[in-house]
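sorry to bug you again but im stuck and you know this stuff better than me. what follows is a protein written twice so to speak, once as letters and once as structure tokens for the fold. mainly i need to know what kind of three dimensional shape the backbone takes. anything you notice is useful, everything is just below:
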Amino acid sequence: MGKESQHLFIDFEFTMPEQKGRPKGFFPEIIEVGIVVARNYKVIDTFSSYVRPQHFPTLTNRCKTFLSIEQQSVDSGITLQELADLFKNYCKNYETTVVTWGNMDMKVLRQNCQKARIPFTFKGEQVDLSMEYKKFFGDRNQTGLWKAVEAYGKKGTGTHHRALDDAMTTYNIFKLVEKDKSYLSSPAKTTIGDRIDLSKVLNKFA
């Protein structure tokens, strides 16, 4: 008998250099993590924490202003090793699919692990929901997370650029897109070319 499946909706916030004077060898490091764990499309757990960067531990003014994050908050966060262990524990008993908005989150996690010589042990499927959204609705340009949820007549959860709020918003969009896919595959299906009225779909299936 196979493992039960689950989805991890993940969002990270990263360090960023000042507009001018990028430090030599700079690369983005994770400083905040938000995780939403869902099984059978229902949230069963969430996790939120700051993460201490190792290579460039002092946040720039640009980073603190853009993300509304204080240095002392990051200084008190978990380590990258603790974050890697957390993912390992989440995944050990389940067939896991990680869902992110965009491809940067998992790229930066992999790079951070490589720089810290921490094994990147995640073997499950990885889904970039922004590309799924783009393909499903035929948008020419890649859409921002909160712009996408507003297209559904909804609002993002909490505050944009807070990791757990963005992870929860990603989960909510995932459910909406999956509902639309189910709607379009029904016997009286509508083609994408008809550009379905999203508000009517939401009213019917909410």
